[in-house]
Amino acid sequence: MGRYVGAIDQGTTSSRFIVFDRHGAIVSAAHKEHAQIYPRPGWVEHDPLEILHNTYEVIGAALARASLTSADLAAVGITNQRETTILWERETGRPIGNAIVWMDTRNERLVHRYREEGGQDRFRARTGLPLATYFSGLKLLWIFENIAGARAQAEAGEALFGTIDSWLVWNLTGGRAGGAHITDVTNASRTQLMDIARCAWDEEILAAFGIPRASLPEIVPSSSVYGEIRAAPLTGARLAGILGDQQAALVGQACFAPGEAKNTYGTGSFLLMNTGTRPVASRAGLLTTLAYQLGEAPAHYALEGAIAITGALVQWLRDNLKFFEAAHEIEALARSVPDNGDVYIVPAFSGLYAPYWKDSARGVIAGLTRFATRAHIARAALEATAYQVRDVVEAMEADSGIRLASLRTDGGMVGNALLMQFQADILNAPVVRPRMTETTALGAAYAAGLAVGYWENIEDLRANWGVDRIWQPAMAEEVRAGYCRSWKKAVRRSFDWVE
Which neighbouring-strand residues pair with 261? Predict the structure, then answer.
């Protein structure tokens, strides 16, 4: 057996490959960003071929940096941006158009069409999801209704649908020469086409959406040996794990017991709480989703609060408004003022996700006076992340009946100490940063390693988890309450901008 486990982490803004050892430590890594394509307002696309090329490139770079080959890897896992939708030709491997990214809102009219016929929650009992632009099923339907010939090809089994995991797996395992067309339970649960209790495609929903069964991948566990990789430079390695990125972070944070929760601060932010082997229906605006399925063991479920825009707001200040040249510079700028100057930013660039689910919301900056500077706006941008997480935590506590004892964090923004302290203050709960913050890739590695016996059981994974730093709340209750009142007021101002 190889000495290490590899993980492909294909995210919204970049692709990376990380090699981990038995202790969950990084042996080697490489990453590369890909283009964000904005053809129209509300439209967000990626080039699937660019993502595939970049994935191969970072695999090669990471292996070369540590003088490794595929023979050194016991297994390889994949984690991916979820809901992003691709349709490609079986015969040529050519994508039928660009990938439609999870935050894209072009299917808004389809959402309204199905809501009018049966309400926002008409499929929620079976899928755990409200009707929203976010999920893959209606993105796929948009392709069928707007790209000539796409539906006919799909009905004939000549066009294959997949989220990014399916696209990568198909290409890695042979592509046109018999590549495996599969997706794991976590990614399937985000299409709004799967019955989450049975972990199977729902024929009634497929019929309602007009989605041909012939185009869909086979649903498989998150941890299982799916086959050998046939693409260089991983030729011969076993592909053995697939997890959507947020579920991968839950596994990477070793949240295997009901009530354990993590929040990943990335382009968006995603808070997941393990609820055990039965799905918990949300009454407070959260999603019920698959957490993971390890081999033949029962699937585990989670409550999820999905926030569309957190790190992307920092990118927007950097790229669109030119506030700073590098994202990390926001912390020093925000620290240059003692508070937000009564400025609040609600970054509803593509509507509001949990717990509001307002597709018609759009971003607002509220409370501006002549006193406000770019430093106040920078601070308000960081604080917007913390407020949105608090909204989700409140909903999660209402649904689960469990008071959050502490929040395990990971993702690109956890290096920002100002944000982490404000998060602890506004939650009135400790915020914990683990030693290993690349928990998304680590979770994919864990799923793959468990499948081949590299790690024996989840207790081996728990033993790898350790604390780097804890932020304790230090804000007076009346100050916290005042901030939250103003935040809620700003959120209401963002509603119903799109008519």
Answer: 273
